[in-house]
Each structure stands twice: as structure tokens, then as C-alpha cells.
Amino acid sequence: MSAEQSSSLPVTEHKDAARPVAAGLVLFGVLAVAAFLGALAIGPFSIAPGRIIAVMWEAWSGVETHTSAMLRERVVVMDVRFPRAVLGVLVGAGTAVAGAIMQGVFRNPLADPGLIGVAPGAGLAAVAWMVIGSSFLVHLPDFFQVMGLPLAAFFGGLVTTLLISRLATRDGRTSVATLLFAGLALGAMAAAGTGVLVFIATEQQTRELLFWTMGSLAGATWIKVAMAAPFVAALLVLSPFLARGLDAMALGEAEAYHVGIPVERLKRIAIVAVAAGVGAAVAAAGVVGFIGLMVPHLARLALGPSHRALLPASAMLGAAVLLAADIFARMVAPPAEVPLGIVTALVGAPFFLWLLLRRRAFVG
Amino acid sequence: MYEGKDVRVVMNGRTLLNGVDMEIRSGQITVLVGPNGAGKSTLLKALSGEHKLAAGRVSLDGTAISELSARELACRRAVLPQSVEVAFSFTVAEVISVGLMGSGARESGRVARLLHSVELPGFAGRRYDSLSGGERQRVQLARVLAQLECGHADKASYLFLDEPTASLDLAHQFVVLRLARAHADKGGGVLAVLHDLNLAAMVADRIVVLANGNIIADGTVDEVICDEVIERAFGVSVRVGVPPAGPYVLPQNIRHSAGTAQA
After folding, report:
1. Which residues lie below 8 Å from residue A206, measured CB to CB, with a gap of 6+?
2. Which of A94, A186, B178, B189 suits a disulfide with B26, CB 3.0-4.6 Å?
3. CA quadruple A182, A187, A189, A193: dihedral, nearest 10
4. Distance of alpha carbon B195 from its chain centroid, rounded?
């Protein structure tokens, strides 16, 4: 029943809708690269952007350092800021893409992994691993000593995502109010569980755990990068395959089924993808809120809601925004650092309120 | 042929369809009529695969639709629901491209042609949420027609329309029904749920009357649109007239049963 051949009608192009998408993706890419270079250059010890490239080149090509100033530059760039910036990219991209996918599945722009309990759930599992799991650590193979933490966070995120989708969705429809309130309850339960664990933790562990509650990229190492990278990579590889299905889901679950989307499978993959992104981010940097809410929203405003552009745009903008927030966190009161989660919450919470008020009619 | 055999749907302990047999033939418009709550939309959803069956079988050219892949089924059967709310502010072109199964570079030309066919030329860049109910319905029709373009030309495809004219003015009702007719004339099959018996009489090749989850009449317009069948289905006294163009239905005792009058 192809009607392809019968197209002798006048054609009005809508190229103008396609152009800003390509330009926007390029712009977000440039922003991400600029933020990455900024993260390497800016700090209490600032290094000119031109020197950054030179220092990296010298380090990679094995050039000997002759002066202590050069050595210091190399240590700061290669050992401190480089892993931190890469971790920032992974956390920002992972959280933002997870947020965009979650909003697509729930058909709601307020479905932020942090707000609906997924990130706190991942955080609880990560803390449980650190407090309880660490006593078993000596008996476990080496693989789990490194990957145990992100795996725990991943499964914690998975369980909460499954729970929230069960709680908030009935007959293919998601109630915004139930979603947010159930998320609030799940988040509170996860926070209570985390509180209990903090209570029984040793003093040394308590200090480390403080990091989970506020979020930070401080203490980034290549091991942490290696922990988060496979999960974020899996999320980014999966996301293009979800794009068409999520676009169809915007019309409703029944409509998505009618256009040939295997809806249940799509939802299962999306839930695993969200848990991977959030779990990796939480394992690497603790709970950094609102990135998954703000970034997809800004990307949608700039490029439209189609997930084919939204998912890569969210990845790039997420990386850029997280790195910018981290630069701010490091620079606002040097040499002390403000926790990253506090910076994102200071911007993100009013943003969420603004979104909520704008959509009051829908929330009811 | 698209066929439902002994289709039974039970929801929350209530039987909505009670073993219904239904054929949708290619080259024809089959119209489903019946009072509110008769199970028309349920039957359409059961046939489309959206509703799980408590018993029975739905098949396309002899193959159970559950054995077809989601994409195979989507290329041969498209559903226009009563209304579609889109979650984010998609443009008209983006909504229609959900129906286009990955056509890449030629997409904008196809979108423009489909919009032209539903009399919405130049709407590609408009935001879907800024459109009127009638415009939205026609955009959805364009999307549904786009979806069936992925099928093979030698295999009939089936268009399911759930009250497609409900939010449309007279002129645009005709646009939709003309496109349904064109689909049937090209060898496709159409199943339309309609409320308006006169519209049904005008457009249908075959009319199926559903009441309380059972088919009570199935035949040509002349066979089905008669005083006795309509009164039995709707519980309203009517008089069916036959002007040159075909039968029409006039309700008689509107005053006594205004609450249930349909025609």
C-alpha cells in the first residue's frame, strides 16, 4: 500500500526546523569542549589554556620536565584536574541523559532521577556497600573491590526505578502527583536508610559518607573514572536505540504500540539505562541533584523535544553544566571547595519551582 | 482479511465483549455503530492488539497478530485514536515522523505531501499543542496514513478509525471520510467506529451493529439501517427514510428518551 509513488503534490519544506538542531548540537559540543578546557585551566593555580595542550602533549610524548614549575603544571593538569574533568563529563552526561530518558518514559518533564528517589536509592545502596560491604571486601575478588561500589549503586538505582514506575504508572498512564509524592517517599526512605548506616558507621567512614549526601568531584582518580565509564558508555550506546521509541511514547503508550514500538521492552531497557547512568554518577560523585532536570529541559527549549537530538544534546550540555558547576564550586572560596551538590541545588531548586509553577495547570 | 474470531474481553471482572466474530475485508469500509458502552472502542482495541483477549483470536491473512513482529503489524495496521495528547511540545512534522518508519532524507517531502492530503498545507513547523482539536485530529490521521506506507503494495493494509469525525466540522468530516474511501479504493481495509448513523449510512460498505458486547446486525447499509435494528440497538424509536442518496435516520420520540438518544 505504498503511496510513495503518488507524490505529485506541491511540497512545502520544513528545513528551517532541521537547521537549528544541527547548529544546536554543534554549539553544545563546543560548550562541552570549552567547559572541559576550563576545568583543566581554572583553579586556585591557574594555567593558560594554551599551556594545557602543551602540558598534555609533553606528558603523553614523554618529554622530560626540566623545571619545578613545569613539573607542578604537569601534576596539576594530568593527575588532579584531568581525571576530575573526565569524571565530570561522565557524571554530567550520565545524569542528564538518564534524566531525559526518564522524562520520556514517564512523559513528564518533572521526572528527575534525584527528585523521584532514584538517585537517593542508588546512594543508599552505595553507602550500604561502603559500610557493610567493605567488611566482606577482603574475601571478594579484586574485580568487586573496584566495581562493587558502582554495581551496588546501579542495582540500588534499578530497584528504585522499578519501584517508582510500578507505583506511579497505572494502565499506561503516569500520574504526576503520584510520581512526585511516591518519589518523595522513596527518597525519604532512602535518606532514612542512609542515616541508619551513617549512625552505625565508623568515624572514618562517616567522614567519607558526608560526601555522598552533598556530592563532589573532589578525590577524582582514574580508578573512579574506570568505575563510572562502562556504565555511562553503556547508557550512551543504548540511547540512540531508544530515541524513536521515546518520541512515539510522547503520543501515549497505546499509540507507541500501534506504530510498532515494543513498549514493554523499551521501558525495560530505559529503566536499565537510567539506573546505569544514575548509578555510575552516584558511585563516582555522590548525589548531585537537578542536573537531570535542568539539562534536558534547556536542551528541549533550544532544540525541540525529539529524542534523536535531545539525548546527544543532553549528554553534551550535561557535561558542560556539571563541569561549570564544579569550576564554580572550586573557585568560590579557594582553597576550600563548596560541595558540588550544593551548587547544583542552589540553581536547580529554584528552576524546579519555576517549572512547577509554569505547569501548575497540569499538576492539579 | 483482518479477522477476529470469538473475541472475548473481560476487564475488572466485567465482560465487555462476549465472543464476537468480526471480519474487516480489504477494499471495503466497515463501520461499527452502537450505543454508548456497547463495546465499540473495546472491539477496535481488541482487534488492533491493544487489549488482551480473555478468549478468541485476531488474525491478519490467517496469521495470528501475536505472531507478527511489532513492526510487521504496524506496517499493515494503523490506529487513529479518538484523541492524542502529546507530552512535549513537538512540531506537527515531528508528530508525523513518528509514523514514518525511518525514511531519512525524504522525510520533509513526505510530511508535506501527507499534510496536503489532510488539508493542512504549511503546518509542518507549527507546534502540535497550539492546534485546535480538529487540526490535531487531522495531523494524527496524516501520521497514521504515513505509518501504512511502509507496507508492501501487494498486501492490503488496514486503517482503524475510532470516532474519527467527533471533533471535526462538516467539511473536515468529509476530508477524513474521503481519505478512508481512497484507502479502501486502493485495496486497503477500513474499520471506522462512528456515532452518526447518517454518516455511517453514507460512507459504509458494510455496517456492524454492536450492543452489550454482542453483534446484533452485520450487513450492507440497506440490510442494517432499518427501523427494527436501530430501535433494538439504541432503544430509540426512529424512522428510516430512503432519499435518492441512501437511507437516513430520524429519531422520533426524542422527548421521552432524550438521555439515550443517539441518532
Report:
1. A198
2. B189
3. 160
4. 11
The pLDDT tens digits of the residues spanning A161-206 come to: 889 888 887 766 667 778 888 888 998 999 899 889 888 888 888 8
According to DSSP H, which parts of chain B are helical? 40-48, 70-76, 92-99, 107-117, 133-148, 170-185, 197-203, 221-224, 227-234
Counted across chains A and B, CB pairs separated by less than 8 A come out at 130
**Which of B45, B122, B157 minimises the CB distance to A1?**
B157
Contact between B112 and A4 using a beta-carbon 8 Å cutoff = no
Coil vs helix vs strand at B250: strand
**B23 with B43: CB under 8 angstroms?**
no
Residues of B in contact with A249 (CB under 8 A): 87
Q: Mutual orientation of helices A176-200 and A142-168 as an angle, nearest 10°?
A: 150
SS3 at position A221? coil
Reading the block at residue B247, the C-alpha cell is: 437511507
Q: What is the pLDDT of residues A118-144, one digit of tens each?
A: 888 998 998 888 888 777 777 777 777
Give me B197's grid cell.
448513523
Distance CA B252, CA B249 (A): 9
Contact A319, A232 (CB under 8 A): no
Decide if B91 and A17 are in contact by the 8 Å CB cutoff. yes
Q: Count the helices and strands in chain A (H runs, E runs).
A: 16, 2
* Predicted structure pTM score: 0.86
Which of B168, B204, B183 minimizes the C-alpha distance to B82?
B168
Strand partners, B29: B190
Residue whose grid cell is 550500604: A128
Closest CA to A157 of A124, A118, A195, A187: A118
What does the angle CA A67 – CA A70 – CA A71 come to, to the nearest 5 degrees? 85
- Assembly ipTM: 0.88
Closest by CA position to B176, among listed B157, B156, B159, B153: B159
Work out the number of other CB atoms within 10 angstroms of the CB of residue B31.
Answer: 27
- Residue found by looking up cell 558508555 in the block: A233
Pairing outcome for strands B77-80 and B63-64: unpaired
3-class SS of residue B29: strand
- Contact indicator for B58, B17 with CB cutoff of 8 Å: no
